[in-house]
């Protein structure tokens, strides 16, 4: 079965041209919605993906109707592939997972996205190391100052209960127990 997905961003736009092109391309069902492509939780797209079965094909008029980012596109294509279905964009002939050439292009695109993620992780790791070398501390700020922590430890060693110490600093008893 061929299933179509149409999307426009604003209420002022019409879905008619997309729906007609999808039906002309053989779509038996067309799911359509008026919502920004930046929104990842799109109900009609979710319904279209849920309607797919093995051997089915999801078609769109243009790739930007399906996804606004490489990551979003790859996640959607992965979901389509997991049910054994294919994907095709009418305007973007390279985006056709029903052909060997199309699968190659999507694989290359996925490889580039993975490479980009690795570069981002490397850059953020290097930035984190430089910040740590400058003395930047990461994580939550301590609930107690160093003086309060030392004082609480002394009180704890003196036999006072964790609950009483915690109440006096307005923290939980587990904060005191971790000192």
What is the topology, as strand order, of the major beta sheet?
Answer: 2-1-3-4
Under CATH at level 1, the class of the largest domain stands as Alpha Beta
- The first-to-last residue Cα distance is 63 Å
Q: Tell me the CATH topology of the largest domain.
A: Rossmann fold
Shape: elongated
Q: What would CATH call the architecture of the largest domain?
A: 3-Layer(aba) Sandwich
Order of helices and strands: EHEHEHEHHHH
What structural class is derived from the secondary structure elements? Answer: alpha/beta
CATH H-level superfamily of the largest domain:
Resolvase, N-terminal catalytic domain
Sheet with the most strands, sense and barrel status:
4 strands, parallel
The number of distinct helices, counting runs of at least 4 residues, comes to 7
Count up the domains: 2
How many beta-strand elements? 4
Low-confidence runs: none
Rounded radius of gyration (Å): 27 Å
| Percentage of residues in helical conformation | 40-55%
Mean pLDDT rating: 89
């Amino acid at each position: 079965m061929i299933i179509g997905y149409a999307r426009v961003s604003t209420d002022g736009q019409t879905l008619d041209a997309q729906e007609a092109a999808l039906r002309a391309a053989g779509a038996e069902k067309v799911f359509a919605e008026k919502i920004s492509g930046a929104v990842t939780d799109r109900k009609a797209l979710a319904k279209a993906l849920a309607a797919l079965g093995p051997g089915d094909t999801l078609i769109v008029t243009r790739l930007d109707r399906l996804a606004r980012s490489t990551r979003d596109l790859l996640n959607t294509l992965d979901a389509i592939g997991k049910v054994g279905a294919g994907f095709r964009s009418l305007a973007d002939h390279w985006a056709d997972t029903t052909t060997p050439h199309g699968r190659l292009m999507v694989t290359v695109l996925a490889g580039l996205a993975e490479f980009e993620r690795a570069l981002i992780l490397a850059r953020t790791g290097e930035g984190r190391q430089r910040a740590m070398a400058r003395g930047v501390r990461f994580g939550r700020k301590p609930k107690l100052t160093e003086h309060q922590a030392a004082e609480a430890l002394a009180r704890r060693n003196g036999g006072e209960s964790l609950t009483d110490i915690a109440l006096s600093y307005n923290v939980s008893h587990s904060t005191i127990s971790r000192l």
